[in-house]
Amino acid sequence: MNTKFITNVSVKFNPFKRSSNACRFFLAQLPANARTTMKISTTILLRDSQEESMLHIKLKNGKELSLDTEKLKIEDIIQEVERHSRALNRQAELAGER
């Protein structure tokens, strides 16, 4: 997964719910040096919390993605992030910022 254009990741999930797997897997996909290149904030909900899992990603161009991890699988989330990263990579290549 190309994380070059991600500036901020905010994750809120309940680790005891099966529906929060996508959040945990997304965090696991981030590279080891991710904390040096982006701001990552995680919020762990309590076992009996009724709040929904949330994944909020901010990109370098200011675009913000709020993804519903209750309904999306990890493949869908990665595909959405990759789609935006490819578009930003294409813009950077056209501007000569490679």
**Proportion of β residues?**
15-25%
Oligomer: single chain
Q: Indicate the overall shape.
A: elongated
Q: What would you call the structural class?
A: alpha+beta
- Any low-confidence stretches, pLDDT <50, length ≥5? none
* Helix proportion range: 25-40%
The side-by-side strand order for the widest beta sheet comes to 2-1-3-4
Order of helices and strands: EHHEEEH
Number of strands: 4
Radius of gyration: 14 Å
**Mean pLDDT score:** 91
C-alpha termini separation: 18 Å
What's the number of helices?
A: 3
The biggest beta sheet reads:
4 strands, mixed
Question: Which keywords apply here?
Answer:
98 residues; alpha+beta; elongated; 3 helices; single chain; 4-stranded mixed beta sheet
List the helices and strands and how they pair.
Layout: E1 6-13, H1 21-29, H2 34-37, E2 39-44, E3 54-59, E4 64-67, H3 74-95
Parallel strand pairs: 1-2
Antiparallel strand pairs: 1-3, 3-4
Notes on the structure:
With 98 residues, the chain is α+β, with helices and mostly antiparallel strands. The chain is built from 3 helices and 4 strands; from the N terminus they run βααβββα. It has helices at residues 21-29, 34-37, 74-95; strands at 6-13, 39-44, 54-59, 64-67. It has a 4-stranded mixed beta sheet. The radius of gyration is 14 Å and the shape is elongated.
Offer a concise description of the structure.
With 98 residues, this protein is of the alpha+beta class. It is 36% helix and 24% strand.
